[in-house]
Amino acid sequence: MIERRLVTQALELLIATATGKPCGTGALPQVSGKPAEPPYSVLRSLTLTLDGAPLTDRNEDSTTYYQVDCVARTHAQAEWLADRVRRGVLGRDEHGTWLYALTVPGWNCYARELDLDAGPEDDPAAVIVSYVIRFQLDWTPAG
To answer: Nearest CA to 116 among 96, 132, 98?
Structure first.
C-alpha cells in the first residue's frame, strides 16, 4: 500500500519548487522559523482510495486527493500563484513529460487531474485572498 506521508512530502516539494514560494503541509509555512508572508500555499491531504488487490497486496492502485490553498494579498497575486501551482502539478512539455517530477519510491504517478478549481475568494477583513484548487493523483506500483 502506498505511504501517504511520502506522497504528501513529494507534492509539497513539487509545489514549492514550481512556485518558488513557501508551501506548508496543513498549516501556514514557516520561513527561518517565522510564519511566511503571502504569497504562499498550504497543502492538505484529502481522500485516499484503493483499487484492485486486497490491502495486503502491494500490486493495488491508489488514488490520492489533495487541496492546495493559495494565499495572497491581492486577487492578481492569488491567481498568479494558482497558475504556478496548476502548471507545476499538471504541466507537460512538448514530449508529454511532466514538467515537475512527483517521485515516491516504489510508485508511479500515472495520472494527475484537476478535481476542483474554486477560484479566488477575498476576505477584506483579513486583507487576504485565498484560491482553492484540488487535484487527483493516480498511482500504481513501479516496476
So the answer is: 132
Q: Whole-model pTM?
A: 0.89
Query: Amino acid identity of 137?
Result: L
Question: Around Cβ 94, how many Cβ atoms within 10 Å?
Answer: 5
**What does the pLDDT profile of the chain (143 residues) look like in tens digits?**
778 899 999 999 999 999 999 999 999 999 999 999 999 999 999 977 766 655 555 567 888 999 999 999 998 999 999 999 999 999 999 999 999 999 999 999 999 999 999 888 876 776 889 999 999 999 998 87
The CATH number that applies at residue 16 is 3.30.2000.30
Provide the number of structural domains found in the chain. 1
C-alpha to C-alpha distance for 74 and 83, rounded to whole angstroms: 14
Distance, CA of 122 to CA of 110 (rounded, Å):
35
Range of the domain at 83: 4-141
